[in-house]
Amino acid sequence: MARTLLANGLVALLATLAACASGSKAGERGGTGPAKKRPPQRVLLVDYRSNVRLELVNSSHTDPVEQYSAVRADANRKVQSDDVMSGLVEVLRSHGFDELAQAGPAPKRAGEAVLWAMEIEEPRGVSHAVATRSAPKPAQAKLVLLKRAFLEIYNSTYGLQ
Description:
Layout: H1 2-20, E1 42-47, E2 52-58, H2 64-68, E3 77-80, H3 82-94, H4 97-100, E4 102-103, E5 114-122, E6 125-132, H5 137-156
């Protein structure tokens, strides 16, 4: 049931935010003047078993033109609109990220007991949550929801590389 609620919630969030973010300027959405920039945000998912790092940033963090106009060693960073990233971070927080998080960046390397980590970077700082084999069942359930929410947005974000 939680899976269905999360999937339905993410689909609704994506549809709403995509509609809101369809123009890059406030004037294109019916307003006047330049669009209001949001604070830069970055969400990183590190899978220590496969050594894969998937990263989502908002356009206030990284200009999409700069990101996608250069050849890069890996194409794991994708740029999403400010509105969608703000919504993603809100969803992650509502599903318990802050309860599980520790201050500071996710570990660069981890032992076999650590499966993956998620990191959120905002102007107020960096924090991360770590999924371990020994995490209590309630924490494991929250971690699965966090990872699924991130991957839903990541996989639906168009990336050029």
